[in-house]
Amino acid sequence: MKVAIYSLKKYERVYLEKANRSKHDFLFLEEALSPQTAELARGCTAVSIFTNDDAGKEALQQLAKLNIKSVATRAAGYDNIDLNEADDLYMHVANVPEYSPYAIAEHTIAMILAMNRKIVQADRQVKAYNFALDELIGFDLHGKTVGIVGTGKIGSIVAKILHGFGCKLLGYDVTENQELISKYGMEYISLGKLCKLSDIITLHAPLNANTHYLINKENIALMKKGVMIVNTGRGGLVNTVDALQALKEGKIGYLGLDVYEKEKGLFFYDHGADIPQDDLFARLLTFKNVLVTGHQAFLTENALTNIADTTIYNLDCFEKGERSIHELTDKKSIQTTS
Predict the structure, then answer these.
(1) 234 included as an active-site residue
(2) How far apart are CA 230 and CA 108, in angstroms?
(3) Percentage with pLDDT > 90 across the chain
(4) pLDDT of residue 329
(5) Are 184 and 190 in contact (CB under 8 A)?
(6) Residue 215: what are its φ and ψ, rounded to 5°?
(7) Alpha carbon distance 237, 243 (integer Å)
(8) Would 317 disulfide with which of 67, 70, 191, 322, CB 3.0-4.6 Å?
(9) How confident is the model at residue 331 (pLDDT cuts 50, 70, 90)?
(10) Are residues 313 and 173 in the same domain?
């Protein structure tokens, strides 16, 4: 089966080729999928996309005109895919629901520690032969109250790690995880109450109509002065304008972002020689208490291997006319073309 791999990054190729074992014919494309780039997949049976590709209604319609019946996203999230339109087009979509929750959970903890202990600033000072400690004071994580928004696979691992630090755990989710309650003393409460009581808030929820802008001026107003917020989930969970205002006022004491609501076209590319176009993002970067990584929380060898393996499994299912266990659409049969 010929497959167009959109948004390919150099670090991905070796993992995809190893997992593929020459079964599928790959067309590697650095371009992101959009209505304008769908034509690049002409002659293919399926496409594989990533988080910032546009698999909305128009793009899917363009793919359908090319007789492309299957979409394999190399990510867990699928808010960039119009599943209703995929169903209407009899197009099958599958994701990678679990590649390495440890990778993202551990990156979350790394961001918490780096911001708290001023690791970036300390490194810069020492390299400038400045060994003054006045601006490097942190706090003990032990005894702090941490609110975890989303206690699925990633949030649960974050909870277990923070329990080891001696943190008090608060959770907000539509489903309560009984293991976290019994083993780690997690208390599930409302989002408003979590905002009021937490010293640290970390976000691990999917992005949908109910979670869009969970962190907004109303909920920020409920938080403790100097609160730490970490988002390794989806950029749209945080209203950046509201967060920026809270940073200026000192309400948010630390902000760690691995994702950004307007990251499409920005993250995953080298813009070092470009004039910055996003004034809001540029303003964020001026704050010493803001730590940004470019959507790299998932980026471990383990995760890349699992992403590639699951993507190939999904493509194998598409080719065989079998339903993948990771199918996101409701169609019961696979239509393929040779």
Answers:
(1) yes
(2) 7
(3) 94
(4) 81
(5) no
(6) -95, 100
(7) 11
(8) 322
(9) low
(10) no
Domain tally, the chain: 2
User: Residues for the chain: how many in total?
Assistant: 338
- Domain identity same for 167 and 254: yes
Integer Cα distance of 12 and 48 in angstroms: 12
Same domain, yes or no, for 144 and 277? yes
Q: Which residue has the tokens 């539509």?
A: 174
Tell me the CA end-to-end span of the chain in Å, nearest whole number.
7
CB 139 within 8 A of CB 117: no
In a domain, 334, yes or no: no
Query: What tens digit of pLDDT does each residue of 36-87 get?
Result: 999 999 999 999 999 989 999 999 999 999 999 999 999 998 999 999 999 9
CATH number of the domain at 129, please.
3.40.50.720
Q: Is 42 a catalytic residue?
A: no
Per DSSP, 238 falls in state B
Residue type at 186 in one-letter notation: M
Active site residue 179: no
Q: Catalytic: which of 263, 319, 326, 327?
A: 263
- Cα-based angle 270, 294, 220 (whole degrees, multiple of 5): 140
Q: Which of 24, 74, 92, 295 is catalytic?
A: 295
Do the strands 227-231 and 168-172 form a parallel or antiparallel pair, or are they unpaired? unpaired
**Catalytic residue of the set 234, 261, 319, 327:** 234
